[in-house]
Design goal:
The chain is an alpha+beta fold and 497 residues long. The chain has three domains: 10-58 and 178-219, Winged helix-like DNA-binding domain superfamily/Winged helix DNA-binding domain (Arc Repressor Mutant, subunit A, Orthogonal Bundle); 65-175, no CATH class; 239-262 and 330-490, BirA Bifunctional Protein, domain 2, CATH 3.30.930.10. The protein is built from 21 helices and 16 strands. A seven-stranded mixed β-sheet has the order 8-11-12-16-15-14-13, sandwiched between helices. Strands 2-4-3 form a three-stranded antiparallel β-sheet. A hairpin with a 5-residue loop joins strand 13 (409-412) and strand 14. Helix 4 (68-76) packs across helix 8 and helix 5 (79-90) crosses helix 6. It starts with 9 loop residues before the first helix and ends in a 7-residue tail after the last helix.
């Protein structure tokens, strides 16, 4: 926007006089000749440019810095380099939760690995890449070496896409700024230079306000529409904001939130939920067992006895207390629910129904893809009351998902601790896939009896991470949890919460 020709200040007139010789000048030249700092010079230049009195040539400058992770990757190699090195040494690597998802994703993108019967194998391209110079690492080394030099601009022009990938991975930070390269006077500036400079107030001071001089003075106008550097206010991580929204929905439906520890023993995680001790979900392939502590004692001997009898009667097999003591990372939040069935199963009849939910991380040692991670956030809920049916659960789930704008579908399903059981799902158009939302049903009488109550208990467990596909622009759950500052600053919600 060009400012209306209204005359110029003494300072602007001095600047134009300096430029009047016709030579192009730099910012440093102007500051030195006029004896002013860069801040003052920038203010005068902006005003004269708005008047069309000067022409400013600008060039892009880049400040690039390596992050600590980037420096580590130069020394130790990129995750995908280390992965194919491990595969080469082992002649194949079994897919497990210990494999870095970022390393696996890049190894696949580079065409270095293939999966055969659950084992990672090197392709011909991968075999030739082992021990060879990796272009991304070489580029990262060059950026570190040339930081602050004029060669940075050349590197950015030649490898713009690769540098963009390094930035997305959080290995470098890039700041782009416009730098004034030269300044020259225009014909309009020469006309203004011939006019008489005016006394104008360019900035308010305490003395000007106190004396009242501002009342009879002319102010230099400012262009309030000029672009400024973008500000990044503090904002909540999208996952935390989403989880808090979920909490508010259930609280609004009359539920109370309860909590429980991440580390439990197998007794509460499996046995109390009528899961047989030889069930596949208890294998190392699905459960993270701990080595320290290796066991956690069962303090409630009365409940222990009832659960032991439940297993012997229901599964007609031996039940070992030593297996029940195994320490583990909880595989579901139902471990919190079953403890609360014990706690709230025998209250005064007037308080029922009791409606509770728990929200937190659970851990499973399963294969990683765009909708599966080793750790996930799960919400588990229960309703304890009299004469409750599956219809009550379906109504509750429909009401909850209606707040999220999700048209949930239901179908029968099997879970060891409910009878009957069902699951809910919805169709995700973006991924062309049916996404499972929850599993639930009516807690088995064997379990409620072992917890010392004759009440009916409705229960469900839902994975919250997958629901974020409809709220956050992302192609994979792993992207949400990388904590990249650039992504956090610029992401947009698909829906309002």
């Amino acid at each position: 926007m060009v400012r209306a020709p209204e005359g110029i200040s003494k300072e602007e007139s001095m600047l134009l006089s300096y430029l009047g010789g016709g030579a192009k000048r730099s910012m440093e030249d102007i500051c030195k000749a006029l004896g002013i700092d860069q801040s003052a010079a920038a203010s005068y230049l902006e005003g004269l440019e708005n008047l069309g009195a000067i022409s400013i040539q600008r060039s892009k400058q880049y400040d690039i810095q390596l992050t600590e992770e980037g420096k580590k990757d130069i020394q130790e190699g990129f995750p995908e380099e280390r992965l194919i090195g491990s595969i080469a040494k082992s002649n194949g690597l079994k897919i497990s939760g210990s494999i870095d998802s970022i390393a696996l994703g890049w190894a696949r993108k580079n065409g270095w690995v293939t999966v055969e019967s659950g084992t990672l194998k090197l392709t011909d391209s991968g075999k030739s890449a082992v021990g060879k110079a990796y272009p991304y690492r070489e580029l990262l080394s060059s950026l570190e070496k040339e930081a602050g030099s004029t060669l940075i601009e050349k590197l950015i022009k030649e490898d713009k896409n690769k540098i963009g990938e390094l930035s997305k991975r959080g290995l470098v930070t890039i700041k782009e700024r416009n730098q004034i390269s030269s300044i020259s006077i225009t014909d309009e500036g020469r006309k203004l230079l011939a006019s008489k400079p005016e006394e104008m107030i360019t900035s308010l001071s305490r003395d000007i306000i106190k004396s009242g001089a501002w009342k009879s003075s002319k102010f230099k106008s400012y262009n309030v529409s000029d672009p400024t550097e973008r500000a990044y206010p503090a904002r909540m991580h999208p996952s935390h904001r989403f989880f808090n929204y979920i909490r508010s929905v259930f609280s609004g439906m009359g539920f109370s939130e309860v909590e429980g520890p991440i580390i439990n023993n197998a007794f509460w995680n499996f046995d109390a939920l009528f899961s047989p001790q030889d069930h596949p979900t208890r294998d190392m392939q699905d459960t993270f067992f701990l080595s320290n502590p290796k066991e956690i004692d069962i303090s409630d001997l009365e409940v222990l006895g009832r659960v032991r009898r439940m297993h012997k009667k229901g599964w007609k097999s031996a039940w070992k207390e030593s297996l029940a003591k195994q320490a583990l990372l909880r595989t579901h939040n139902t471990v919190v629910s079953v403890k609360n069935i014990l706690k709230y199963g025998n209250l005064d009849s007037s308080v029922y129904p009791v409606k509770l939910f728990s929200l937190g991380k659970v851990f499973r040692n399963e294969s990683i893809d765009y909708k599966h991670l080793n750790e996930l956030n799960q919400l588990d809920g229960i309703i304890i009351g009299n004469s409750l049916t599956l219809s009550n659960l379906i109504f509750t789930m429909r009401e909850f998902y209606s707040y999220l704008g999700i048209d949930v579908k239901f179908k029968p399903s099997y879970f060891p601790f409910v009878e009957p059981g069902m699951e809910g799902y919805y169709y995700n158009k973006e991924h062309n896939d049916n996404i499972e939302l929850f599993g639930g049903g009516i807690i088995r009488k064997e379990i409620t009896k072992a917890m010392g109550t004759n009440k009916t208990v409705l229960a469900w467990g839902m994975g919250l991470d997958r629901m974020m596909f409809d709220y956050v622009e992302t192609s994979s759950l792993s992207e949400i949890y990388r904590n990249q500052v650039g992504w956090l600053r610029n992401f947009r919600y698909k829906k309002s919460m």
